[in-house]
Design brief:
Distance between the termini of chain A: 37 Å
Largest sheet of chain A: 6 strands, mixed
Oligomer: heterodimer
Number of strands of chain B: 11
Strand content of chain B: over 45%
Shape of chain A: globular
Order of helices and strands of chain B: EEEEEEEEEEE
Order of helices and strands of chain A: EEEEEEEEEEE
Distance between the termini of chain B: 37 Å
Largest interface: A-B, 26 and 26 residues
Mean pLDDT of chain A: 89
Shape of chain B: globular
Structural class of chain B: mainly beta
Structural class of chain A: mainly beta
């Protein structure tokens, strides 16, 4: 089943924070986060493995709660360049041979 | 260091024709994945290949679609007798190895069937 992302869309002013959630009905081994700008390829952000770890990349970080089968992506002090659609890809097996992507969260950052 | 390359970037085919989409993975990567994306939708897994092997094709339609990744040369996604519903963006991704490694995406091929 496709993971559910929330919210579906969000509009921020530059400098504001946002949280994007990804929930799965299946037990997960890893969660992969990507950002895609309109008409472009998805760009890899980070992978989280089961174990409840939290990862960070500049002002973007994420957590993974394997018991709840959820991951959250945290965008801090958003910049205009953060605009795009964010997808989580879930992997229940550990092989990552078949990522199942959510429907996406469209983020728009304005001045 | 070249990334994942796909060609053509745009492809227009009439109904009934064949479409061939090519993907060259990042240097050193031997694992290739194909995804399809309809407008305003997420990415749908199609097939996972290693050199000369199809590992998982569970997302591929049973008819008209085939994929290969030969020992030499790019991976090819082939769609025979295209229909309007095949119009989509087709993305290829590659990874260093199987398992939970990051997948790097190419720029995609936008197929339009007229």
């Amino acid at each position: 089943q496709q993971p559910v992302q929330s919210p579906q869309a969000v509009i921020l002013r530059e400098g504001e924070d946002a949280v994007i959630n990804c929930s799965s009905s299946k037990a997960l081994y890893s969660v992969h986060w990507y950002r895609q700008k309109h008409g472009e390829a998805p760009v890899f952000l980070m992978i989280l493995l089961k174990g409840g770890e939290q990862k960070g990349h500049e002002k973007i970080s994420a957590s993974f709660n394997e018991k709840k089968q959820q991951s959250s992506l945290y965008l801090t002090a958003s910049q205009l360049s953060y605009s795009g659609t964010y997808f989580c890809g879930t992997d229940p097996t550990g092989t990552a041979s078949k990522l199942t992507f959510g429907t996406g969260t469209r983020l728009q950052v304005t001045l | 260091n070249a990334g994942v390359m796909q060609n053509p970037r745009h492809l227009v085919r009439r109904r009934g024709q064949e479409a061939r989409l090519r993907c060259s993975p990042m240097k050193g990567h031997s694992h290739v994945y194909w995804y399809r994306q309809l407008p305003e939708e997420g990415l749908k897994f199609m097939v996972y290949l290693q050199k000369e092997n199809i590992i998982d094709e569970s997302g591929m339609p049973k008819e008209r679609f085939s994929a290969e990744f030969p020992k030499e040369g790019p991976s090819i996604l082939r769609i025979q007798q295209v229909v309007r519903g095949d119009s989509a963006a087709y993305f290829c991704a590659s990874s260093l190895a199987g398992g939970p490694y990051e997948q790097y995406f190419g720029p995609g091929t936008r197929l339009t069937v007229t």
